[in-house]
Amino acid sequence: MPRPLPSTEEAARILQAKRTRPQRAPIPVAGRALTKTLKALDTRFGQGADGLKARWTEIVGEALARRTEPSKLTKSRTGEGASLEIRVEGPSAALIQHQGADILARVNLFLGSGAVERLRIVQGPLRGAAKRTGSADKATVRRRAAGPLDAAAEKALADGLAAFPDGPLKAALARLGREVLRNDGGGPAR
């Protein structure tokens, strides 16, 4: 004759009283096991270029951060200061080279006195450029289309440009005149 199955409460009580296998200890957290090793590595090698990349805009300022990014921080084997390699977009390299002493001073203020002694400038495209262009930059912000001029201002502009022959120069002057009149309050040119 089949034996009836125990209810949920009875099964819980039986499992508490009798355990067929010993309960395993939980797996230790990886962060706790690696903390000592990571601290030793950080003390020995430092944060490297990644620590600088995270706060590069704060270190060198908005204008330089748009044109540069730290790519490599190489520590000297003799214990002297490190060498910082900066990636710079094409023609900006000459300007950045002239500001090298200021950049070194700012980086040493962030990393500690004498941490970086040399600056190496490498020309090339910025790898973090896609991330930077996503932010609202003055050059990428679209302007709202301006409304049309009133009829009197448009007529005055057309009369002023009547002496010019039709072509791209006249069209460019008309666009310029419209913008000037819009910014001037829409009245006739003075």
CATH architecture of the domain at 43-133: 2-Layer Sandwich
- The helix content, as a percent range, equals 40-55%
Spatial sequence of strands, sheet with the most strands = 1-2-3
- Percent of residues in beta strands: 5-15%
Average pLDDT, to the nearest integer?
Answer: 81
CATH topology of the domain at 43-133: Alpha-Beta Plaits
Question: What's the tally of helices?
Answer: 10
Most strands sheet: 3 strands, mixed
Query: Uncertain spans, ≥5 residues at pLDDT below 50?
Result: 133-137
The CATH C-level name of the domain at 43-133 is Alpha Beta
- Element-level helix/strand string: HHHHHEEHHEHHH
Counting helices, strands and paired strands, the structural category is mainly alpha
Shape designation: flat
Q: Care to count the β-strands?
A: 3
| Radius of gyration over all CA atoms, rounded | 34 Å
Distance between the termini: 112 Å
